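Request: Give me one sample?
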Amino acid sequence: MRLGERRQCIGTWHLDERRPCPFQEPLDTATTSAQCQPCAAADPGRAVAKDTVLDNRRFHLYLAWFGPGLIKVGICAVHRGLSRLHEQGALASTWLASGRHGPIRQMEKAIAEAGIAVERYRHDTKTSAWWAYSTPERRHNELRTAHQRAQAIPNWPKDVDLAPCLVVDHTHLYGLADLPLGLDRAEALQPGAVVAGRLCSVIGSNLVLDNANGPVVVDARLLAGWTITPVEANREHGVERASLRTSAQQTLF
């Protein structure tokens, strides 16, 4: 695919309807957010993160494992299920509880404040841990320990339903064992860039494209906001090195 000459805000999502940005605001080529500030502020989908949810939906509280010692606590709408964990590239996960947004968000903060898990990891921290995915036993044991510590916090709200620790392993979805060590990562895509190659893995929002120059990781969020047109390309035509900035991945080894 070839990118257009300008990247702009994608607007907002309201249920299943996308509303274009009224300002047609240009976006920086290196940002992974495809919205300008006014659209981001108005997007209902960001209400959970901003603690401004006004509906009565139920939410899951979860623990996600991204690597040794990298456990995240988070919330997602119950209807999203495991798809929310897959979107983040979680390597394993377990539910902690479910309930209305207010008490679930309260316990998310409490678990983070107790040092049991964190609410957010940098994108490069998670991708650097791909090669340190260890063994299923380690993933499961670390999650079980964190689950026990979290549910041992006193004074859980009465209207929250606690969930047993049932660890789900996601590593089989990503093909981690087939990835070479130290992948290049596209940090920005420039106007007119061509992105081509064989898609050999999808890990969260990351696309691993194999081409004659070697595999490269492209965060799919960098593609949002561009006009995209198909082009004829062969194996020699990967992500044009003149059209992107790359950074070698560092592993945890």
Q: What stands out?
A: The first helix runs from residue 37 to 42. The two ends are 35 Å apart (CA to CA). The mean pLDDT is 86.
